[in-house]
Amino acid sequence: YKKLLDCNPTPVIALNHAVAVALSEGIEKGLRCIEPLAESLDGYYLFHAARADLLRRLNRKPEAIEAYRSAIGLATNRIEIEFLERRVRDLGSR
């Protein structure tokens, strides 16, 4: 993703790169890569879903729930919405 980002620095590719960083170099580092994308990807539900997942993994429940709710508000696919709602319920019951 780093090479792809160098060739084509779009916000969506930067998001994919940030997720790869999170999985390979640490969740906190990945989250730091995601945060600057907030303005350009605010209307993209996968930005909020990816951010929520990293926050969940860091046990930052209130922030994760808020991010999941943002993703739910933007998602249009019923299956994806149900998955995100399940994540919110899981976090609320812990």
Uncertain residue ranges: none
User: Helix tally?
Assistant: 7
N-to-C SSE string, H for helix and E for strand: HHHHHHH
- Report mean pLDDT, rounded to a whole number: 95
Please report the total strand number as a whole number: 0
Proportion of strand residues: under 5%
| Main pleated sheet | none
Our Rg estimate from Cα atoms comes to: 13 Å
Protein structure class: mainly alpha
From the N-terminal CA to the C-terminal CA, the straight-line distance is 34 Å
The dominant shape is globular
Characterise this structure:
The protein contains seven helices and no strands. The protein is mostly helical and 94 residues long. Helix 5 packs antiparallel against helix 6. The longest helix has 15 residues, at 11-25. The chain is globular and about 40 Å long.
Outline of the structure:
The protein contains seven helices and no strands. It has helices at residues 2-7, 11-25, 27-34, 38-41, 45-57, 61-74, 78-92.
